[in-house]
Amino acid sequence: MPLLTKDKMINEGVPRNQCVGGSTVKEVVMAGNYPVTGDQYRDIDRRMSEIKRQLNQDEGSPSDPVRILLALQGIVEGNFDNVPVERLPIIDCDAMPFIPNGWSAVEHRKGGQIEFDPSKIVLHLESEQQRSTIVGNELRKRLEGQPVMNANVLDHLLANTRLIPEDWKADEQGRIRCIYFWGTIYRDSGGRLYVRYLCWNDGQWRWYCSWLDDPWDSQRPAAILAS
Q1: CB-CB contact of 77 with 32 (8 Å)
Q2: Mapping DSSP to helix (H, G, I), strand (E, B) and coil, where does residue 143 land?
Q3: CA distance linking residue 68 with residue 188, whole number of Å
């Protein structure tokens, strides 16, 4: 996968894995007696796609397909009594982040205990990124005060890749996405500043990092908690 030449993949001490978009919908769709917003429709569509993705894994599904069928049948029949309430994973964003050997964390924005809900995460692009590029150091300044996700979220997702939305792999044009977690900034032994990102590459989720002197384009969004 062609990435910017200054990007570096760190192999030493990397936390390892434990191992819908595109359609146009009306903003409000009437279903029975309940109004359905466009966001709700898309969220349900993403979750259905995630169920199918898990069922289609070569190594087998992490969930019992019989129980999935029973739960879906109950939903189809309008019976929600036996449908379990989903518990969102809790991520400790106050904990010390993973730090590669020889590096230090020069900035780590703590965020408390958060429930990870992909529908509440915005993949943010500055206007310059949408048109062309912006230098990482300038982008860092622009994101000050924004609720950016820190590296604890990145590492939790690497350890629980089933939580990562399918549409984080690529953008609307099918180009690979590099999703940055600007809440943690690192310095290497040479004094250079880096930020880590999540990327789908060679059939698996990996983390890489970018030098803040690099340019950021539209394939490099920041993961931000929606307000």
Answers
A1: no
A2: coil
A3: 46
- Measured between its terminal Cα atoms, the distance across the chain in Å is 33
Q: b or e along 1-20 (b: 16 or more beta carbons within 10 Å of the residue's beta carbon)?
A: eebeeeeeebeeeeeeeeee
Query: What are the tens digits of pLDDT across the range 94-140?
Result: 999 999 999 999 999 998 998 888 888 999 999 999 999 999 999 99
Joined together, the tokens standing for residue 59 give 């190594």
- Residue 204, both tokens: 């698996």
CB 113 within 8 Å of CB 90: yes
Predicted TM-score (pTM) of the model is: 0.64
Q: Is 21 helix (H, G, I), strand (E, B) or coil?
A: coil
- Its sign, for the CA torsion 99, 164, 200, 197, is negative
Dihedral of CA atoms 51, 55, 58, 59 in degrees, nearest 10, equals 100
